[in-house]
Design a protein that fits this description.
The complex is a heterodimer of chains A (274) and B (409). Chain A is of the alpha/beta class and 274 residues long. Chain A has 13 helices and 11 strands. By secondary structure, chain B is α/β, with parallel strands linked by helices. Classes of the chains: A alpha/beta (274), B alpha/beta (409). The interface between A and B is large, with 46 and 55 residues.
Chain lengths: 274, 409
């Protein structure tokens, strides 16, 4: 019973997850859920952090403060903290993953903060690593939580990082790649329009002629988001691309239609009414 | 009669005091339109439709729309734009429209009528639409006739089309009609007070608070419209005003009211949010205000002791009844929707064909494309069937003799 439940609750923390956090409490709460999910599934959690990290921010302190039994987990070898130089070694993530799987664990979770990675990697090496990790998560029992601070992640860097992750989690909005296309959940407004823009950019840059964007889980979308939608997809649509906005909730569909998004060439709203 | 140029908006008033007076001015206008191949639409009450169609020999090219007794200026403007765009796309050179003025005479409705008549001069300027508004001087009260005299660039009479000496620039006219008086609801205790806002990340919390506070009082559509409008106005205050931005919301069983104040100088453009901003132009500013104007009965801006204030108000429709303003040009929309459906089918078929030709794509992507295109076709088919059924049902219930049937949007 508990086993089946854990399969469903928390599955949003599986795979290659980008956690775009705007505060320390957001980061810690996301990190804790992600670690709990791994421990529930009998996976090993490998975490990278520098030795000189502020005591309150260290992963063990964060988890302990939120009620995770870190003593037991570290003693069993299910929770391992590595220095960045070992974590980002020349063997890459595959080295860590295969080592842990050889140790008999059902799966591996790896996580670090953007700051930590950038102490040993260049931004281009990090971006390259993220793309490799995205593929690895698709073919091996691996989950990764990549923690990026909103304040440090903007513009082209945000687009690059969002494009490299199958899942993106931000306070107001989540983006998940599914078989059909990308599923958005949450609320989109001027406060997270940059993330929406990055997600749109990612789905329209894959060389697909038809892009499926599921809005069924979006319960609010504002005029700024409509502006972003029109602007970011412009080149894609000019190039005969078709964007399907699938199953918007009535208030969202109303906003889209009142701002004539349905009139844009290359946009189809596939909703309750034509 | 001096006809306007073929492009752009022409806006005439026709004041009449007899059937003969109406026909003598309107029939040549409509007949010339039919002869020139213009699209011709009558937005008239039944009696005038009968008079005019008889006089025109029942020409089947004439389109009929139902005039509204209550309107929302922004929605009417949006629908006129869509109608003209759809006709232009179909190769029509210009749309001629004759409209009866039938609005209710309560102050709010007259003020909103004035906003439509005045703002339309700017908002519809790029559209090839020649509108003649017919004012029955026997039936309409003085304040409605005054709106007519001030907001039309031309007057149409049986003998001539002349420039209107009484025309007032829209911006000046709108300043006059705004402020229908302080909303009495605003003297009661607010249902929600935001506290000081300075960052757009706080707006999501405000939206949730308003939803929670009003969910039992207000039907879902009215509430989501109001919340979206408040969200836009608040965002504008935070982004373009000076902090702190404060939001208060009041609600009764009949009305919703919101005041957003900030400490900046505000904007002094009564036409803000009416200018043509749509489609590919959406990235420009003003779209939030344009959306808010379409979602609410009234959006007004003015300075107060508390700072620059934008007031948003809506009446709450009885459950199950769409506001008249929205029903107004359902007919226009249904025609546009039918055209769009046909286009979508053609495009979906095209997508299928093209995706078959792309060899580089993997099987999964191929499947995904075809699923998407198939689903699209199916959904559009289902919706078209539903719409036909509904239209037929309504037609048989409400209006067995007519060949147009208003339809819920």
């Amino acid at each position: 019973m508990a086993g089946t439940r854990s399969q469903r609750v928390g599955a949003e923390w599986d795979g290659h997850v980008l956690l775009l956090h705007a505060s320390e409490s957001e980061r810690c709460s996301g990190l804790t859920s992600w670690v709990r999910r791994g421990l529930d599934l009998d996976e090993v959690v490998v975490y990278a952090e520098p030795a000189d990290i502020a005591p309150g921010r260290s992963v063990l302190a964060v988890l302990d403060a939120r009620g995770v039994d870190v003593g037991a987990a570290t003693a069993d070898g299910r929770l391992v903290v590595l220095p960045p130089a070992d974590f980002y070694s020349s063997a890459g993530y595959a080295g860590i993953v295969e080592g842990a799987l050889a140790g008999g664990f059902r799966g591996v979770r790896i996580s670090a903060e953007d700051e930590t990675a950038l102490t040993v990697l260049s931004t281009s090496a990090l971006a390259h690593g993220e793309r490799g990790l995205d593929q690895l998560c698709g073919i091996r029992p691996v989950a990764a939580l990549c923690q990026y601070a909103r304040c440090r992640t903007g513009g082209a860097w945000l687009r690059e990082i969002v494009a490299a992750h199958a899942r993106v989690r931000q306070a107001q909005l989540c983006s998940d790649e599914h078989e059909r296309g990308t599923v958005l959940t949450g609320q989109i407004d001027v406060a997270n329009a940059d993330m929406f823009a990055a997600a749109l950019h990612a789905v329209t840059s894959n060389d697909d002629a038809v892009v499926w964007l599921d809005l069924g889980g979006v319960d609010f979308l504002d005029a700024a988001a409509c502006g972003v939608l029109a602007a970011v997809t412009q080149n894609f649509r000019d190039d005969n691309g078709h964007l399907l906005l699938v199953a918007p909730q009535p208030p969202v569909e109303r906003t889209l239609r009142l701002l004539d998004i349905d009139q844009l060439a290359g946009v189809e709203i596939v909703g309750s009414e034509p | 009669m001096t006809a306007p140029g073929n492009t752009g908006y022409a806006h005439d008033a026709l004041f009449y005091d007899s059937d003969a007076g109406l026909l003598a001015a309107a029939v040549p206008f409509l007949r010339a339109g039919l002869a020139a191949g213009d699209a011709v639409a009558l937005v008239c009450h039944d009696r005038n439709i009968e008079l005019l169609t008889d006089a025109l020999g029942g020409d089947r090219r004439i389109r009929f729309l139902t005039p509204a007794h209550r309107i929302r200026a922004s929605v009417a403007i949006a629908n006129f734009r869509r109608m003209v765009e759809a006709d232009m796309a179909a190769g029509v050179r210009r749309v001629r429209l004759l409209g009866d003025v039938v609005v209710d005479t309560d102050p709010d409705t007259v003020a909103e009528w004035g906003r439509l008549e005045a703002a339309g001069n700017i908002a519809l300027a790029p559209y090839s639409l020649w509108t003649v508004c017919a004012y029955d001087v026997r039936a309409l009260p003085e304040q409605v006739l005054t709106v007519g005299r001030c907001t039309h660039t031309h007057l149409l009479t049986p003998s001539a089309r002349t420039t209107n000496a009484g025309y007032v620039e829209p911006a000046i006219f709108l300043r006059r009609v705004t402020s229908t008086g302080a909303d009495p609801l605003g003297t009661t205790t607010p249902a929600v007070e935001s506290g000081d806002l300075a960052d757009v990340t706080q707006v999501i919390v405000l939206r949730d608070r308003i939803r929670i506070a009003l969910t039992d009082l207000v039907p879902a559509t009215a509430l989501s419209d109001f919340v979206a409008a408040v969200s836009e106005i608040t965002t504008n205050g935070i982004l373009h005003g000076l902090p702190p931005t404060r939001v208060r919301v009041w609600a009764s069983a009949q009305r919703l009211l919101c005041r957003v104040t900030d400490q900046g100088g505000g904007f002094d453009d009564p036409l803000a949010g009416y200018a043509p901003i749509c489609g590919d132009d959406l990235r420009h500013s003003g779209r939030g205000l344009w959306l808010a104007r379409q979602l609410c009965d009234r959006v007004e801006a003015f300075p107060t002791r508390e700072g620059f204030t934008v007031e948003v108000a809506s009446s709450i429709p009885l459950a199950g009844i769409e506001p008249a303003s929205i029903a107004r040009s359902a007919w226009i929309r249904s025609e546009v929707a039918a055209r769009r459906t046909a286009n979508a089918r053609a495009r979906a078929a095209d997508l299928l064909q093209r995706s078959g030709q792309r060899t580089a794509a993997g099987a999964a992507i191929e499947r995904q494309r075809q699923d998407a295109a198939r689903t699209l076709v199916r959904l559009y088919d289902d919706a078209a069937d539903r719409r036909r059924d509904t239209a037929q049902r309504r037609k048989s219930i409400t209006d067995p003799g007519s060949d147009h049937s208003p339809e819920q949007t």
